[in-house]
Amino acid sequence: xxxxxxxxxxxxxxxxxxxxxxxxxxxxxxxxxxxxxxxEAELSGEDLSGAxxxxxxxxxxxxxxxxxxxxxxxxxxxxxxxLEGADISGSLLDYAELNGANLKNTxxxxxxxxxxxxxxxxxxxxxLEGAxxxxxxxxxxxxPDGEINNNDC
Length: 153
What we know:
single chain; about 150 residues; little secondary structure; two-stranded parallel ribbon; globular
C-alpha cells in the first residue's frame, strides 16, 4: 500500500530523485563513489578533493563552484553536468563523457583529459594551463576563448 502511494505521488508531482542517497552518503563520508549513481545530485560548493568518482553516473549533477582537486572522474558519465566555477585542477577525466556539460570558468589546470567527449560542452573562460588534452571529441564545443570547435562533427 505505501509503495503504491509513493508511486502515485511521484506520478502526480512528476518529480523523483535520480541519485541514490546511499551513494551520496558514501561519497561525503569516505570520498569513494566509483560505479555509483549520483545523477542529478546537488553538490554545489562542496569540497570533494581527492575523491574517486570513476565510472560513476554523474549525469546532470550540480558540482558548480565545488572544490574537486585531484578527483578521479575516469570513465564517468557526466552528460549535462554543471561544473561552472569548479576547481578540477589535477583531476583525471580520461574517457569521461562530458557532452553538454557546463565548464564555464572551471579550473582544469594540470588535469588529464584523454579521449574525453566534449561535444556540446561550454568551456568559456576555463583554465586549461598545463592540462593534458589528447584524443578529445570536439563538436559544437565552446572553447575557453569563446570560439566554437567542430573538429569532430
